[in-house]
Amino acid sequence: MVGQLSKSVTLSAERTMRKWALGLEVKQRMEDERAMSRLEQSIRPFVAISRDTGAGASELAHGLASRLRWEVLDKEVLDYMASHFHLDKAMVKVVDETTRSWLLEMFGKWLSRRVVTQTEYINRLGKVLVMAARNASTIFVGRGAQFILPREKGLAVQLLAPLTYRLEYVMNEEHMSADDARRYLKRKDRERRDFVREHFGYDVTDPHLYDLVVNLEYMNIESAIDLVVHAVKQRFPEVFET
């Protein structure tokens, strides 16, 4: 009799605990949904540019910023992260849009305080992108901005260019030989693809991820700027109403 009573009490306690845990789970989910809703409402329209290495995305971004009077966040994000979060800029640069081995991720901090892990980088990057997007309409270059920020608030652009165009661009900008530039392009393109796949679960080369794909094979950068400006005004007409 005592055993049956004890078993009954235990089952009752288990049911109570399950209900309590379920209630907490539902409450947390509702709080997360409300927080996400508030976040989405505070995010301003933005442009997220994904690019082939050497396609001139920085030039496109600054041209758009001049025309739209928006902000640009490209490599400046590294300076901001280093300053705001008291990180070593050199270490932030090492993990910028790259993937790192699990060994370094696990033991890097133990080996050196100067190491910035990939997890830390992604966490801080997300905070910086959200802060920027809440502060002003911004043009983001790479770094998975379209996967971090609310998709409906942004125009996702993919910028492509032929290999000859990209080789010439990198040779001039980085002062490299043709062979070195070719290796550089291959490495950077691979790192960026791996970065997006590992941290956001997408194939960055999939055209369905973008609202607009711009190929510079038969178009100069000024024409590309015109095209993106038109797309932005079509997507966010309320921003430009006077």
Short account of what is shown:
With 242 residues, the chain is of the alpha/beta class. Helices cover 64% and strands 10% of the residues.
How would you describe this structure to a colleague?
The chain is of the alpha/beta class and 242 residues long. The protein folds into two domains: 1-42; 46-240, Rossmann fold (3-Layer(aba) Sandwich). 64% of the residues lie in helices and 10% in strands. It has a five-stranded parallel beta sheet with strand order 2-3-1-4-5, sandwiched between helices. The longest helix has 41 residues, at 2-42. The radius of gyration is 23 Å and the shape is globular. It starts with a helix and ends with a helix.
Helix content estimate: 55-70%
Average per-residue pLDDT, rounded, comes to 82
Oligomer: single chain
Supply the helix-strand structural class. alpha/beta
Helix tally equals: 11
Question: Descriptors for this entry?
Answer:
single chain; 242 residues; alpha/beta; Rossmann fold; 2 domains; five-stranded parallel sheet; 5 strands; globular
List the helices and strands and how they pair.
Elements lengths: L1 H41 L3 E6 L5 H12 L2 E3 L2 H9 L4 H7 L6 H10 L6 H18 L2 E4 L3 H4 L5 E7 L2 H12 L3 H23 L11 E4 L5 H15 L1 H4 L2
Parallel strand pairs: 1-3, 1-4, 2-3, 4-5
Helix pairs in contact: 2-10, 8-9
